[in-house]
Amino acid sequence: MNSGKPPPAPLGATASSATQPGDAPQDAAAPQAGAQKAGAQQPDASGDAKLAARDPRGAGRRIRAAARRLFLERGYGNTSMDAVAAAAPASKRTLYQHYPSKAELFGAVIAEVWAHFIGGPDLPDTAEEDPRFVLREFVARMCVHWDQPDVIPILRLIIAEAPRFPELSEAFARTGKEPTLRKLTAYLEMLRDAGKLPAGLDTSLAAAQFLGAIKEPLFWPRVLASPIRFSIEAVTDRAIAEILRN
User: Fold this and answer.
1) In this structure, is residue 5 part of a structural domain?
2) Which domain holds residue 154?
3) HEC string of 60-81?
4) Residue 53 phi, psi dihedral angles, 5° rounding
5) Mean pLDDT per 10-residue run, the chain (246 residues)?
6) Domain boundary, last residue among 37, 68, 100
7) How many domains does the structure of the chain reveal?
8) Which helix (H) or strand (E) holds 138?
9) How far is 110 from 76, CA to CA, in rounded Å?
10) Cβ contacts of residue 183 below 8 Å, gap of 6+?
11) pLDDT value for 56
């Protein structure tokens, strides 16, 4: 997944919001420069180079795994880049070469968590299949995704800390929510153009309403550890009926 280049920075993030207390400057050489000023021992870059030669993507995987574990154990605000480097383990030089800021590292963790769903099968590009069957399968896949390890805990973390760190909700929107909404909107547009949905239907609004109708009975009980009282089929069919009524 990781090419050695940092993923794009969260939308709207600034240098001040992307770098949290405990993070080193975004210049990859800054941690080393700070160590020189303090007379500290320099990281063993040769060891990182040897590891990278054996497994070019191994460092990125270790960094993301360590970051995910620390984010969930300590929270985003209480996790420093220094702690991630120590837990990976990786030198700070290697860490900042992969992820210049904590916000970018969190975005990479979110993308990895969401890859199970976003990277799955696309919705059909023809109207041949019964939309009820297609959308039931779509919602079933969403529920399977929500039940994957770390998905709900990561979402709880975002909900809890986004007021202080808006880059968390931006990362979730960019890597999880918006791609899902685009997929569903495109499918509804195709159904509308094929005459299976009302001609004047606002597909963007319909997609958002559909997801809202799904999440209230199927998603939020998972987040709040409450009982799920309705079946996927019943929830999906009611949501489809609302779209058709528009």
Assistant:
1) no
2) 120-245
3) HHHHHHHHHHHHHHHCCCCCCH
4) -65, -35
5) 42 35 37 40 43 62 96 97 97 95 96 82 86 91 92 96 95 90 94 91 94 95 95 90 78
6) 100
7) 2
8) helix 131-146
9) 12
10) 122, 123
11) 54
